[in-house]
Write a structure and sequence with these properties.
mainly alpha
């Protein structure tokens, strides 16, 4: 059994570490998107004449944007359901931060070894998304309502792929404990499942992170800022902060489930970070290469791709379970 003191220290350390890595991932998405489109984007190294004013790097630009929002006025609409409108961003953040405590990081198992940690982490991530829907619904804004409706429709189809991918792995590994899955060995069947379920998980991440072509809830040209139209100041900053933690959590969960044992030992840290960068690169490439879907197109695409992939994953998982 792990030292309780070490576990507590790990739980304390992982929150700022997850924030830092989530900010870096967000920076890379913005930087790579800009470079793919022949733009500069936020700069790794600032121009020498601007260093006295802007510093040497803008690597933490996503965090600066969030901190700027915390310094602005927070406006609560008179027509909103005030308590739900105000509390939803914080509850969404709490669930997102709690979820990462159940996902291992190299050298830090955290709470990934507790029974049913896979179910707990996935439910916490889902709960975080639900409160990103309830808050906008409570705002009383028609634009927020349209964005929230799109969010619900996208949520239903993206969560299907998310659940099918992670539980196919759970069936094949015969475990609902993330730490046990991350420490599992490999075989030909498991390698095949890793590819099929990994693709399905990647597709689900596109919807959960609102990456094109699945960014229709926040279509600025159509519905202002979508679900967050009425949010401002620290409440909007809290939602953006939640997105940073969700980005980290999904990347960490993907590596733990589909690239074992990279999340189990500090010796794997370089490969873990490399795998995270490759995953961020793939997400960014998909975003740059695709236009925004209409919600009807998104649902049809998920029905044509997610369900067949999900069925394939379940067949492979059941075959592994029978063989083992």
């Amino acid at each position: 059994m792990l030292d309780p003191v070490y576990t507590v220290l790990s739980l304390i350390i992982i929150v700022p570490l997850a924030l830092f890595l989530g900010v870096i991932y967000s920076f890379l998405i913005r930087k790579l998107s800009a470079r793919f489109q022949w733009r500069v984007g936020p700069m790794f190294r600032m121009y020498s004449d601007l260093k006295p004013l802007l510093g040497t790097t803008r690597l933490l630009q996503p965090l600066y944007d969030i901190l700027k929002l915390y310094g602005k006025e927070t406006i609560v609409p008179d027509v909103s359901r005030r308590r739900l409108f105000v509390y939803s961003p914080y509850l969404s953040l709490i669930f997102a931060v709690t979820a990462i405590l159940f996902i291992p990081f190299p050298g830090m198992p955290l709470l990934s070894g507790v029974p049913y940690s896979l179910i707990i982490a996935s439910y916490l991530l889902i709960a975080s998304t639900l409160f990103s829907i309830l808050g906008p619904v409570a705002s009383g804004s028609p634009w927020a309502a349209i964005g929230a409706r799109r969010e619900v429709e996208l949520f239903l189809v993206s969560e299907l792929g998310f659940v099918l991918s992670i539980f196919a792995v759970a069936i094949a590994r015969q475990s609902l404990v993330i730490w046990d899955i991350a420490n599992g060995g490999q075989s030909i069947y498991l390698a095949l499942l890793t590819v099929a379920a990994g693709v399905l998980m990647l597709v689900a991440m596109l919807g959960k992170l609102h990456i094109k072509p699945f960014d229709m809830p926040e279509a600025e040209a159509e519905i202002v800022a979508g679900p967050y139209t009425e949010y401002s100041g620290k409440l909007l900053g809290t939602y953006y902060l939640t997105k940073v933690f969700i980005l980290y959590g999904l990347v960490a969960l993907f590596i733990s489930l589909f690239l074992p044992p990279l999340a189990t030992s500090v010796l794997w840290l370089p490969l873990y970070l490399l795998a995270a960068l490759v995953l961020v690169f793939l997400l960014t490439a998909v975003q740059v290469l695709n236009p925004r879907y209409r919600i009807k197109n998104a649902i049809n695409w998920y029905l044509k791709v997610v369900i067949p992939l999900g069925i394939l994953n379940l067949i492979i998982a059941l075959a592994i379970w029978l063989v083992v």
